[in-house]
Write a structure and sequence with these properties.
The structure holds 2 protein chains of 2 kinds. By secondary structure, chain A is α/β, with parallel strands linked by helices. In chain A, 37% of the residues lie in helices and 22% in strands. Chain A has a 6-stranded mixed β-sheet, sandwiched between helices. In chain A, strands 16-17-18-13-19-20 form a 6-stranded mixed β-sheet, with helices on both faces. Chain B has a domain at 31-133 and 250-272. Chain B is an all-alpha fold. Chain B is flat, with a radius of gyration of 23 Å. In chain B, 78% of the residues lie in helices and 0% in strands. Chain B starts with a helix and ends with a helix. The chains are: A alpha/beta, B mainly alpha. Chains A and B meet through α3, α4, α14 and α15 of A and α8, α9, α10 and α11 of B.
Chain lengths: 570, 272
């Protein structure tokens, strides 16, 4: 065994934010060694981000709260050294990474840090960072012209340009499609293995933890509950579930079926485990049911951006689509495939360059958004952009009030109850947590009582437990709305919720079918940069009937194995 | 009122955003973008101040012609020019109206006209210079002039968040529009509609400011962890940062031509 040098040493770290009653960190002690690829997990408010901010000295230098104990970064005490000095050996990527990009172009942002520290080779370092993250092609591009995924990679590039010993990333893949998420983790893996950078991620996607991380540290109420190697950590299923952290789907299945430990944590291991299972059944394939009356009909919609300029771009081409009553449609495809744009066209926010659009057989290609809003509701990806009032209650009543709906207060009360917002109805929605904000935005959508509701990434940036909650609320929404369209990267949501999936790629419709059929078509998934949820991949590999969720798999498995027993006995 | 519809189509928020960004970041190459920003700033400091003290008509007209030529060379956005001319015309009308109201007569028209020419010269000079210097160069030029790093950085950063703010502003306006109710009739001279849009614009500022205030927390921290305060103390870093600023023959030629032109214009004034 090789001796490893500790990079971070925390002893009895205790911290409380000013004005708060509770200590967010309590006597926390931990050691993080050089060469680890560590995932920090924990429920909401367990102190994950706070702990990471103590590593680079932002706490106690920038957050003046009650601070006790000691943190050493590479042997240096963080309380007595200033942040700028500490930052030379620790890179930090925020969850709201857009706000940490400070310079107008990619290359300038990548060089910013080494330049500030007066390193003569700052240009080379910036270029190296862009090369590692795969951004060399866009080095002269203005940052606001980069896609979300590229901006995230750039924030990462800027943080590693100093070649720090340690890199901390807060929720690296919360806003990315599966393809880009993998790309980020591949970059992290390269930094870890090829360049020897120690990496800490705050993460709740346990399937990524299983594939990439070496260690897992579980925080609970400001303390380290344990720190283990990944397989052992993900096998503590009860510890995780108790804190609303969901282990990989295959691990959940193995746990529910009470298989022998260690449970499988990756798909490959699961296939090995279940290969000898008694479940043998021919899969049957379900097709799209015949369509009812169309609510929305799009004929040959095309959209060109920057018409006046030479670098114009076809964002949507040849889109013909019928969206019908009682359909729950998931719009999928990689970042930049045109999903959001298509939603905006249906909502009347963006006007198509050519083509016709009908809502309930009325041609409305040129109607103003205000008029369309009576039929079509639109919920933005970022809830904050929907907040225009100073309390939750006012946000929800805005639409009803402006249209002078009778007795709207009763309706608002009902919505507040459905979306569990009664206790926070007088607070400013901007100051709520991510999950609460999302609930407010869904309630705003429901209050508009549209016939068609469009949602852009309703589960982005949410932890898995909150996501499950949003999923039940989405089912709740079906009461109020006839047709729902969701643009999403979240394939578990697609599998569990949608009745129909439309795959977009480069502004064209690539496929339009049930999730079941799409997840079994490898060429479409590759072309659309999507990947099936782990559970679906498992059923495909085992050649058993399609299961959209863990519980369906367990039910099918138990049923079959019982029958198998009976057959065996007979 | 077909033209109103046409105007509405052309003057979308998206168009305004694009034009503003194009102006602010000087994305297109022109003669001026190749000049050293320090030279441009020095040049500008003459044309921003001196015209105030010139009363000779021939000189003013000469200056104006020069500025019009430069505006054409700099390819200033038509949107900016339109806003500028509306501003100038409005100013003349307003002052004229006030003068008439307080018992003046038409004799004020001539002095008003010359004042406007003066303003036009100064505004065109500003537009030409600032749509040709990109924010980075501007802030680096300020650094070289000895302005504190904090100030010059805030100039650059203000430009940096401009697109983000515009984007956010656009989204918030959209939220109002999607959930509000536009007047069903246009009203006299589109009055109702204009009133509705103006109210939205005003109301949108409150959410915009709150949202940006929330963002700035991360930005301030990011500045610190990227070692900005470290650099601000270090003279050597300042040199490294701005070492690319170098004057070329073209800069001096431009200054020389300007000086010649100014001398000729003032000379003509003496002859007439």
């Amino acid at each position: 065994m090789t001796f490893r040098k500790p990079l971070i040493e925390c002893r009895d770290l205790t911290f409380r934010y000013p004005g708060e009653e509770h200590f967010i960190l309590k006597d926390l002690t931990c050691t993080i060694d050089e060469g680890e690829f560590l995932a920090i997990i924990g429920g909401n408010g367990s102190g994950k981000s706070t702990l990471c901010k103590a590593f680079n000295g932002l706490i106690p230098h920038f957050y003046v709260g009650d601070y006790m104990g000691q943190v050493k970064l590479d042997g240096v005490c963080t309380a007595t050294t200033d942040v700028a000095t500490l930052s030379q050996s620790i890179g930090y990527v925020y969850q709201d990474f857009q706000n940490q990009l400070l310079r107008p172009t990619a290359i300038e942002d990548a060089c910013f840090m080494p330049l500030n520290y007066g390193l003569d080779d700052y240009k080379e370092r910036g270029l190296w960072a862009l090369e590692v993250t795969g951004l060399l092609d866009v080095q002269d591009e203005f940052i606001w012209r980069l896609s979300g995924g590229q901006q995230h990679l750039l924030a990462l590039a800027s943080a590693i340009a100093m070649r720090p010993k340690l890199l901390v990333i807060d929720e690296p893949i919360a806003q990315l499609d599966p393809h880009h998420a993998e790309q980020i983790y591949e970059v992290l893996k390269k930094l870890h293995t090829d360049y020897g950078i120690t990496i800490i991620v705050i993460e709740h996607h346990t399937d990524f933890i299983a594939n990439y991380c070496s260690h897992v540290m579980l925080l609970d109420e400001g303390k380290v509950l344990w720190k283990k190697e990944t397989v052992g950590a993900l096998n503590c299923v009860e510890d995780l579930l108790a804190r609303n952290i969901f282990p990989p789907q295959v691990t959940q299945i193995a746990h529910s079926l009470q298989l022998a430990q260690p449970y499988p944590v990756t798909l490959q291991q699961a296939i090995q485990t279940f290969k000898t299972s008694p479940w043998k059944q021919q899969p049957t394939v379900h097709h799209l049911p015949t369509q009812s009356t169309p609510m929305v009909q799009l004929n040959n919609i095309e959209l060109v951006y920057n018409q006046r300029q030479a670098n114009n771009k076809l964002v949507l081409q040849n889109i013909s689509l019928k969206l019908c009553q009682h359909e729950h449609i998931a719009l999928v495809g990689n970042n930049g495939a045109g999903k959001s744009t298509l939603l905006k066209v249906i909502a009347g926010i963006v006007r198509p360059t050519s083509g016709q659009m009908y809502i309930r057989e009325q041609l409305i290609t040129k109607a103003a958004p205000e008029k369309l809003a009576q039929d079509v509701g639109f919920i933005f990806q970022n809830p904050e952009e929907m907040f225009i009032e100073d309390s939750v209650r006012k946000e929800i009543s805005f639409y009803l009030k402006s249209r002078k709906v009778d007795n709207y207060e009763i309706h608002v009360d009902e919505l507040l109850k459905t979306f569990e917002l009664v206790d926070i109805q007088d607070q400013d929605a901007r100051l709520l947590s991510g999950g609460q904000q999302r609930r407010v935005s869904l309630a705003i959508g429901a209050a508009m009582r549209p016939k068609i509701l469009l949602l852009d990434e309703p589960t982005a940036n949410l932890d898995i437990a909150t996501k499950q909650h949003v999923l039940t609320l989405l089912k709740e929404l079906k009461k109020y709305v006839q047709t729902i369209v969701i643009a999403t990267h979240d394939m578990e949501l697609v599998a569990e919720w949608s009745s129909r999936v439309v795959v977009l790629s480069n502004g064209r419709i690539l496929a339009d079918d049930t999730s079941e059929r799409i997840f079994q078509n490898h060429s479409i998934m590759a072309a659309g940069h999507i990947s099936a949820p782990q559970i679906v991949q498992l059923t495909t590999a085992l050649e058993v009937p399609y299961c959209a969720s863990v519980s369906l798999f367990i039910a099918g498995y138990l049923q079959q194995s019982e029958r198998g027993v009976h057959v065996g006995m007979g | 009122m077909e033209w109103v519809k046409k105007l509405e189509n052309k003057l979308s928020l998206e168009y305004i955003k694009q034009e503003l960004l194009r102006t602010a970041f000087s994305t297109e190459k022109s003669f001026f973008t190749q000049l050293d920003p320090r030279i441009l700033l020095a040049w500008y400091s003459y044309f921003a101040i001196v015209p105030w003290f010139i009363y000779e008509h021939v000189t003013l007209v000469g200056y104006l012609l020069f500025m019009i030529l430069l505006t054409i060379i700099a390819r200033v956005s038509p949107l900016i020019l339109t806003v500028l001319s509306i501003g100038l015309a409005g100013e003349i009308l307003l002052l004229g109206f006030i003068a008439l109201f307080f018992g003046g007569d038409l004799s004020i028209v001539a002095p008003m006209f010359w004042l406007s020419i003066k303003l036009a010269v100064i505004s065109l000079a500003s537009v030409t210079v600032f749509s040709s210097i990109n924010p980075e160069k501007f802030s680096d030029a300020l650094l070289r002039f000895g302005v504190p790093a904090q100030f010059s950085f805030s100039v650059a950063y203000a430009y940096r968040i401009l697109p983000t703010l515009l984007e956010e502003f656009q989204q918030i306006i959209l939220s109002y529009r999607l959930r509000g109710l536009a007047p069903s009739k246009n009203g006299v001279l589109y009055f109702r509609k204009i009133y509705y849009y103006i109210m939205i614009l005003i109301k949108s500022f409150y959410p915009l400011i709150l949202n940006s205030a929330k963002r700035s927390r991360t930005t301030v921290e990011a500045l610190e962890i990227k070692g900005f305060s470290y650099a601000a103390k270090d003279k050597r870093v300042l040199k490294m940062k701005t070492s690319y600023l170098q004057t070329s023959q073209m800069d001096w030629l431009f200054l020389l031509l300007t000086v010649c032109y100014v001398v000729i214009v003032h000379g003509l004034q003496l002859i007439f």
